[in-house]
Amino acid sequence: MYNRATRNLWSQMRTYGITGEDVGSHTGLLSVVQGSWAAWRTMYPDTKVLAASTGYARTYTDDIYIDSGYTENDQIWFAQEPEVDPRYHPKEWTRGLLSETRAKAYPFISLGDVGVTNDRFGEVSVVIVYDKKAKMAIPYSRELDDRILTFVAVPSDDL
Q1: Range of 112's domain?
Q2: Are residues 67 and 25 in the same domain?
Q3: Regarding beta strands 147-148 and 143-144, do their DSSP bridges make them parallel or antiparallel, or are they unpaired?
Q4: Over the stretch 63-92, which tens digit does the pLDDT of each residue have?
Q5: Under DSSP, is residue 89 helix (H, G, I), strand (E, B) or coil?
Q6: Is the domain of 111 the same as that of 68?
């Protein structure tokens, strides 16, 4: 990420400024849901999409990561710290949780086909709801009033 007004460069993965007057300053975090476009359109059919005609020379039709096979191969173009966990493919889709003091990863391959994972993230009880077909894992709080709820997956043929 680059701020043209201040000429500051920001590390997206580390969430802080790496050049310019904002070196070491942290950005705010937003919740992100990543998944297939088909699943998103089913959930939010009125979604509007930014047009590719931005007024800049860059065409948004090419993706070097996809076109080169980078998203599927074992290559790592950017240094990782800590090193990539050798138990998983280096490009394994993963749901991450992040706070100021901790981080936790939920590799999709470990979540099952349609999974519900009850867990704790620091002091917070969470449930990760995962749908393999949608390529989507969404975290929710399990806390309701003074209770901690426990969730289980219900097969779709039981609905």
Answers
A1: 32-158
A2: no
A3: antiparallel
A4: 888 889 998 899 888 777 778 888 999 989
A5: coil
A6: yes
